[in-house]
Amino acid sequence: MMMFLERLQEALDDAFYEEKIRVFWGSRAEVEADENEYIVYTSRGKQRDEFADDKVLLTSETAIVKYNYNKVMLRTRGGRQKAMRNAEKIAVALEGAGFDVEELGELGDINANGYYTIAFECEVSSIE
Question: What is the DSSP string of 61-72?
């Protein structure tokens, strides 16, 4: 599983290095007061599909990626556009790293911390 998570981390780190948007596994560490955005991903685990001969033929690994942006970004057109561009950038980065990506949509301020969330599910499947 670590290869899957390492690949996910690397894809997001590479995509957001210049913007200095930090990427966390599991839960966020403390963010600086001036950090308006951060990304958190969590593993949903591995699924093995067996077929008629009881042998595993397909293995899938899935993660949830949450892009979090400060609600102050919603106050301006530029802030809203930046949030939407970064959400798209997440999907493109993950697809470029070989993940199947589905946007789960905007979830609002789910952690009641002043940050709004856009979530994605990403998956990689392999035939054994």
Answer: EEEEEEEEEEGG
pTM, whole model, 2 decimals?
0.83
- The tens digit of pLDDT for each residue in 46-97 reads 776 666 566 657 777 889 999 999 999 989 999 999 999 999 999 999 999 9
Cβ atoms of residues 8 and 99 within 8 Å: yes
CA dist 126 and 60 (Å) reads 6
Local structure of residue 73 (DSSP, 8 states): G
The domains of the chain are located at: 2-127
Helix (H, G, I), strand (E, B), or coil: what is residue 44? strand
CATH class of 2-127: alpha beta
